Amino acid sequence: MPVDGQSSSSITWPITAFTRFASGVWCASAISPACTVIAIAKSLEIRTVNIVRREEVIAELKSLGADVVLVDGPGLAKRVAAETGGAPIGLALDVVGGPSTLNLMNCLAPKGVLVIYSGVSGQPFSGSAPSVIFNEISVRGFWLGHWRKTATDDAIAKMYDHLVPMVASGAISPPVVASYNLDGFSDAIAQAAAFKGKVILTPN
Q: What is the pLDDT of residues 107-117, one digit of tens each?
């Protein structure tokens, strides 16, 4: 597979998402780019509830194969239950933080796991002590570098065997919104901070 700007930027998200999937029927996520989560989940026969902050992206995610797409906000857990027929959700992935984390936590079934690996809102995440105590909800952080230090060779090989063909075929293709050479470093950082997609830096 040629390692161009698109493929090199694509692989980090798939690795991160893949290592967080567990056995189960449904996964809830508040993640950007959601297209990666949707593609990997479908390949593993896991259905997704995708939580977004803007109503205008619902149709786009549906076209990518999302099973359920809902706008974050009050009553999210009840809306998720209505859309999924009350199916138990064992895993939630969060990169937003703030009150969105609590909303995702409330969607989880007892003994579910909430994984946080970014906080694009810039706000401290909110949680529910009763959910942790009485429903045994687990909250975990995830950083790819830590996983690489402890993952076995077999686990890493299995992950790449699954993901590399998806990247090569274009099944996984996170959006690249702009490409800059090193002279445009400041502009690249400013655009990346908007969290609208990948920004690529290339040699002059």
A: 999 999 998 88
